[in-house]
Amino acid sequence: MLLLGSCGRVTKKHAIVPDARRSKTSAPAEVRTPQVLVGATFVTGVASRAQLPPPGPPEIAFAGRSNAGKSSAINALANRTRLAFASRTPGRTQQINLFALRSGGLVADLPGYGYAAVAREIKKTWQDFLWDYVTTRSTLIGLVLVSDARHGLKELDLTLLEHFVPSGRPVLVLATKSDKLNHSEQSRAAARIRACIAAKFPAQAGAVTVLPFSATRRMGVGHADAVLAEWLGIA
Ligand code: GDP
What's the CA gap between 66 and 48, in Å, rounded? Predict the structure, then answer.
């Protein structure tokens, strides 16, 4: 069992951390127009393991702490301008929302975790469902973890990764709200997340891609889309 703790927070004081092993996924130029999530349509909301549809098409899950910018990232990737995928109340979207992609795959929008105002028992039930989902869902081919670039990976992010990364399936970490950092801070924030993952999961670090991302500035959108397309075999 790994000892978990948050890591990857960027501060002005931190020395530049050399990039850990980079992902083998080579992201093409940023100019790429997003495709994978464009035109996605809602299929169903799932509140328990029993409600999950039987394993079918390849699934990509989006996860992250409440308020990390997951809905905004999904909407940016779907080329939507208004919130269309999730509730506006943090911590209240307590179901997995499944969307069908035009390619035939599925996107699972997982409920945000770590929202302080949700009762402890409810939080635990939900977190257990999430950990169970990422561990056991056989058609889950990749995980997108949305993390505020300024805060790095928190304990619950690391717990989620601990349940998924050992399977060897790929992870894309979107270091969101990178527009709030200057250029060198953006690089440092991403490098620290890479270093954190390399330290905690040395054998699987090559399966993890970390991208500076901003929904508002549309930074990293093309790269992220290319990574998802590669996972789905539609690159
Ligand atoms: P979620 O709870 O993870 O789905 O987070 P949301 O997408 O709802 O975003 C939470 C807050 O962060 C909202 O106020 C968003 O406007 C803001 N936000 C999300 N993405 C960005 C971003 O890329 N840049 C900035 N500056 N703010 C963002």
Answer: 19
